[in-house]
Amino acid sequence: MRLLLPPDRNQLATHARVALLADWMSDWLSRSVVITVAGTYGQMVDAVQAGETDLAWTPPVVFAGLHASTRFALTAQRQGVCSSRGAIIVRRHDHAASIAELGGRRAAWVDPLSMSGHLAALSQIRRYGLDAATLFASQEFYGSYSRALTAVLDDEADLTSVYGQLRDTADESVRQALDDLVGPRAAELRVLERTGPFPYDAMVGTLALPEPLANDTRDKLLALKQTPGTSSMLLDVCAAERFVPAEPAAYAWLAATPSFQASRRSSRPVRR
After folding, report:
1. Cα dist from 80 to 57, 171, 256, whole Å
2. What is the mean pLDDT of residues 97-123?
3. What is the pTM of this model?
4. Is 70 exceeded by the pLDDT of residue 263?
5. CB 160 within 8 A of CB 149
6. Domains, the chain, ranges and CATH?
7. Band of the pLDDT at 8, cuts 50, 70, 90?
């Protein structure tokens, strides 16, 4: 069985984590599991639609257009909810008090299709009646949260955005994310503004899975739970308490965004 993961949040842990997760899932499912990490979110669209993976942990804007290419779709439940809020991050001594004061700054994003690392921030900017294309002096994509944050820390950029929890009035989950991503240097950063809410990523079973195997895998995923004294590595990687059925309506609004249309375009060269 093949599982495709999105570009990793912590590049330093990618290879070790993938190998350990593949071993854990092979034991859990009693079949060999091969795990790969996509280079970009656009590559995930191509792989799912082409049936080149059996399972995929897809970002919301990718999942929004993949219903016809899936046998099932589940999402993460965290703190009893299936949606979250992100955060726009600046250096600690930046004097900006809101997004409206970021004119002429340099933005460092994760990926064009990353919800927490790009799209949620753009949505928040539009709430001010602003357009990122004219607000910022530049916008660059760095491929991962850790690289985008490092660009801000090293003064290659002035702001970025990361993930957090929905029920988080004091920004504890964002501070934890920053600690996980850049370690002690997180103290050099601060939350400017929260973004969202928006739905979590979705675990999809693709049409490459025979229907009986898809049903069995779905049931096993739904049965996974984090309980005292036991641990599910897959739930750990997906930062989930459990998987629950995804509600397509929660993702439908994404189909109206320019990024959704961009995600439908293949990342592969045209064959001639």
Report:
1. 20, 18, 28
2. 92
3. 0.74
4. no
5. yes
6. 2-80+200-263 (3.40.190.10), 84-198 (3.40.190.10)
7. low
> Is residue 105 a contact partner of residue 158, using CB atoms and an 8 Å limit?
yes
Q: Which two tokens stand for residue 99?
A: 């997004």
Q: How far is CA 231 from CA 2, 55, 234, 235, in A?
A: 22, 21, 9, 8
Count of CB atoms within 10 A of residue 158's CB? 21
Angstrom distances, CA of residue 206 to CA of 62, 65, 271? 13, 13, 24
Q: Which helix (H) or strand (E) holds 130?
A: none
Q: Which amino acid is at 78?
A: R
Q: How confident is the model at residue 12 (pLDDT cuts 50, 70, 90)?
A: very low
CA distance 74 to 248: 10
Dihedral angle of Cα 261, 264, 267, 272, to the nearest 10 degrees = -110
Tokens representing residue 258 in the block: 């320019």
161: pLDDT confidence band, cut at 50, 70 and 90? Answer: very high
Mean pLDDT confidence for 170-178: 90
Alpha carbon distance, N-terminus to C-terminus of the chain: 32
Question: How far apart are alpha carbons 269 and 239 in whole angstroms?
Answer: 34
Residue 67 has pLDDT above 90, yes or no: no
Phi-psi region of 242 (alpha: psi -120 to 50; beta: other; left: phi over 0): beta
Cβ atoms of residues 263 and 113 within 8 Å: yes
Annotate 30-53 with b (16+ C-beta within 10 A) or e (fewer).
Answer: eeebebebbebbbbbbebbbeeeb
